[in-house]
Amino acid sequence: MKKTAVFVLSAALVVTVAGCGSSNGKDNASSPSASQGASSSAASQAAAKDEKVTIIITNGKGEIASQWEQAAKDFTAANPNITVEAYSGAVGDTLGVLDKLTASGKKVTIAMLEPSAVNYKYKDWGIDLSKEKWNEETKDSIKNAAGQVIGFPFAIEGFGLVYNKKVVEKAVGGTFDPFSINTRDKLKELLDKIKASGVSTPVAYQTEGWSVSNHYSTQFLNQAADPNEIVNQLKEGKFDLTGNAVWNGYYDTLELLVSKDYNKYAKRPLDKVYDDAHLSVGKGEAAMLFNGNWAFDSLKAVAGDSFGFIPVPVDNNASNPLNNKIVAGPTQILAINKEATPAQQEAAKKFLNWLVYEKAGQDFLVNKSQIISAFKNNSNRVNNPLGVAIADAIAAGKTMPFTTNYVVADDWFKIIGPDVQKLLVKEETRADLAKAIKTYYANKK
Predict the structure, then answer these.
(1) CA gyration radius for the chain?
(2) CA pair distance 166, 170, nearest whole angstrom
(3) How far apart are CA 110 and CA 264, in angstroms?
(4) Prediction pTM value
(5) pLDDT per residue over 266-306, tens digit each?
(6) Residue 36: alpha-carbon gap to chain centroid
(7) Among 47, 51, 223, 245, which is 20 to 30 Å from 397 by CA?
(8) Would you give the DSSP letter of residue 286?
(9) Cα(23)–Cα(35) distance, rounded to whole angstroms?
(10) Count of alpha carbons within 13 angstroms of residue 45, beta-carbon side
(11) Exposure of 341 by Cβ count < 10 A (0-12 exposed, 13-18 middle, 19+ buried)?
């Protein structure tokens, strides 16, 4: 969802996978009217389960476009009465595919969305999935404001300080526990050790708007058990950012990370250095950067190199839960269009069940796509080192909510991001940034 510095809409990849028979046109029929009664509706739904039908499914994770195509083929092979049109968009362009297809007159059946979208831009798009059996296998189903499950958790991801294990272990002289860095002073001590080991700039901090804003700058929301509590206070104009120790604490840590003492790009902090930053950490020329598990391919590491996550410390209280966890949660969900026909909706539900319960679906999700499954019945494990680190942290209870899900990510990227960047180059104060955030929420009322 936030994997690239540049967000562009590219031509979608579409693959149509037909079953043994072609669609007989019933997939374009309208839903039964209320006047037909409950029994007629129930009969229609029962018939819909076996009806030949065409569905359109969209994928916003461009990096798994080929796997998405193959999944459509495998699903159709197991369900020959369902024809699947599978579309994928560019990396990072999660919502663009749905918008483009809708504008062209196509009715998407299953759409991949960012979780926050179900309560904002697409709040009226999806059907209620609360009664689906797969909810028993996950704690990460996404609900709307009314408490209905309308999002199937497709991908679990997380972020923190990505570090090169070889570099850090050399600096500390042996095995390193990333969760031992649970204060800001301990982080500074580690950075000093890395410098002493011969790495002159331990941090390769890229400052793209999405990274410093809707990722890094939302972490303070986790000081509440439910991040929505603080979001609601922000909306009401009742949350004092400048007087909040956690909000300030994260920026104290950010100032440390981007300082001239440690950051490779301190002299040009707002340059577009995403690729160089990841290559630097991947090659061991720097030790760490702030990003998520989606960054692994960008590290371009040689075989055998390994990486992990260090929590972002917010203060010097070693017992503060925020200092001892990394952020993780669902970043992509699948929703089913309420305007799809009953037959299409039944076919879409069957596809979601295939992802959860069938070996081929489980294999596509984890082994083929290297996505951390949200479902406890999927025993497959990713082998991407950063994905492994996230999965291990989840298993150990060392994660906290993915705070980007509680804001409108695109707004924070485009509207608030520039103010965070100005803070980093001292063109704004924290009071200025706080005012910008307050103004943003005031204008959203």
Answers:
(1) 23
(2) 6
(3) 43
(4) 0.82
(5) 988 888 899 999 999 999 999 999 999 988 888 977 767 89
(6) 42
(7) 245
(8) S
(9) 27
(10) 12
(11) buried
